[in-house]
């Protein structure tokens, strides 16, 4: 084994270009790595071995014919809520058992056009509802750094497979932190793009006004490469923006200076109850950015404290409608009844897990006649205030630094009986989804128990280039991202 | 005590778009079930709606034709309910910001001009078609997601006659404007009718009953009349009307309870996050306004004032836009409006009806009819021969002149030919000749008929009459 699975997109692209390896070699190494460790990690739900090797062979042939596509021959794992034509798309739910996607999500089509090899689909919290990948009906995923710990969620499989070198990169989705938090828990890089940057067509919707697809990778540069492939207007998604996609990867200079850059530090983001090791690592990271020439200023996000409440009203309201289509009539699980209503009831009772049911009920409640104004409408107003906070803050700084999570990855089962406690862990990530802007998570340290700690770099809407630049400079001058878990 | 009814209509009209409201599936009535479907209209995971701009155009134009104000900002909402005819289990519709606001329809009801006002028109998507068979239900999603407008009137009508006149006017305007074919048998126009009854003089409206989903004018009339009687009888007998949703059973001629207020749906409307609000640019609206066709009422008035047609003719010609358009195309080639009108109302409508055709399918083109009329006016053929030519072209196609020649229909005014036929008729029919000479002027008509018969209809009737008179009066 040539250890190709341990390399990054940019390293492998160089090797492929110089002919020192083939895509088939890479896929073989990655498949061997999966065979060696996924029994412990449990990142994958389905692995498309033969199909992946066939794609790799085609990529090698294309390269021989002169193709230089940005992801040519690079194997990527897919969060199992993205439709991949001809493959299952379970959303880690029993209710989608037997469903085979009849079409490619736009991001999947873009990956194919960019030459990527689709490896298979990875685990997640059911319908992306959760922060630990413990709400998964079809498999259990562990944190590669310590198998007794959660990988985070909902894109837990996407983060775990990259951290465990079981994929070179992966796609996740982020509704309230579902890319950034598992990236932080597993010590990899994850980007939540600006709402509207990446088409949601083919992403099984959790909360339509918050969901974004993004990359999980081993380095910031890899995220830039993958993000560039994913972005762009799509006529199939009315919320996607007609805007040119910057050359994210090419524009990342090798310079490590942050001179002239103002980085904001929101005082509200160092919350009571924050793990002292997390706080220290992030404060050290801030100092490091200062040493690279950045000016650190205090900013305020006064309404951030309402984010959890607002998030769990808006997200569940949208989800209650989005998940109504899973009814046993046209696809997936069906448990028959004497009439459609009984069929729906039986199918949904058996098909959905308890967290999904909890959120559907909550969302149905907040939209109900007599409660709408007090909950949903009020939440939308506060959402505007949260967005205004960021608008004000970005008048003073280029990017905002913060922790991603209040604690490092916790143990499996530790919070699964207390949903509210788990919801509160989203306090630092949900405001970004509510505001619609972009953020990046990258490794900035380790707790004394060996679990990774993440730094969140928050950018204004459509300022992905800025956060990638800060992240890249930080990464080039630190060693955190080079540490790998021993499995 | 006397009672009065208050009626309001919610009329669903399927727009004439090529593709569905939020996906690019084709709209086709009567196609094999479930062939015009895709992940979007089947509500598959991850599929997203994209607005059909043609539907927005048609809805705005409908609003303009009905005198609505076009809302400068309208938006989409989700209406949540579970039923197999709605793939997503929510319908995309417009709750609080519809595309068109206000509006009115002025129409004659039993000899009186009445104006009925509209509350709004909103755009939404259609449901699939459910068919219930023994032991199973079948769902055809071809119709799911097709463009549907809901035209909501105010509670401003007071009788079945009002409602029917309103519906007929709306239908005619929608057809005229090219908004919808409004083919009720194909479900392209369906109405929910709200009916309440109160004592005359009472200010507040009585409890409202909604009768759902009727597509036939006859059933709507029966249902309204039944419901007014039922509610009046209920109130008179000391009872009270329950606010509820009812259906109409045409076999029994009765309405029946479907859903009471306690069991009413909570649709949990909220803004559709997958679609952006709609703001139509002022220039776009002006463009659409400039494309609107003339409506039947002003068109009818114009035919009377400018073309000198009788009111009756103008009404018949403008009742259907295709007919009126055909009429006007013919008028580009002739000045004889009454003759064109006579042919359309006579031969054309008779033949179309006999052969179950529509005017656009006629082999007689407006140009050809104008030519036939010109030949009649020039006395080349008689009016009767003109009708023969019309029917021949209608059935077989061809050119008027060639048919006249082939059938020998040209009129004969030549004295030598007429002279022989006239002498023959006088010689062979002594009795009418005697009667004429004795003062019975009408007897000449018999002789005239004989000449026409001998000429096989080709003789110029005026010339024949003149010649017979000459010979008999001499």
TrEMBL record, chain A:
The record, for PROSITE patterns, names: AMIDASES (PS00571)
The enzyme's first-digit EC class, named in words, is ligase
Entry keyword set? ATP-binding, Ligase, Nucleotide-binding, Protein biosynthesis, Transferase
Q: Which reaction does it catalyse?
A: L-glutamyl-tRNA(Gln) + L-glutamine + ATP + H2O = L-glutaminyl-tRNA(Gln) + L-glutamate + ADP + phosphate + H(+)
What is a single Pfam family found in this protein's UniProt entry?
Answer: Amidase
Give the enzyme's EC designation: 6.3.5.7
* Subunit architecture: Heterotrimer of A, B and C subunits.
Assigned protein family = Belongs to the amidase family. GatA subfamily.
- The protein's name is Glutamyl-tRNA(Gln) amidotransferase subunit A
Native organism: Pontiella sulfatireligans
Automatic annotation (TrEMBL), chain B:
Keyword list (alphabetical) reads:
ATP-binding, Ligase, Nucleotide-binding, Protein biosynthesis, Transferase
- GO biological-process terms attached to the record: glutaminyl-tRNAGln biosynthesis via transamidation; translation
Q: Does the keyword Protein biosynthesis apply?
A: yes
Q: Which PROSITE patterns match?
A: GATB
Q: So what EC number does this one have?
A: 6.3.5.-
- Identify the HAMAP family for this entry: GatB (MF_00121)
The entry's protein name is Aspartyl/glutamyl-tRNA(Asn/Gln) amidotransferase subunit B
Q: Which gene encodes it?
A: gatB
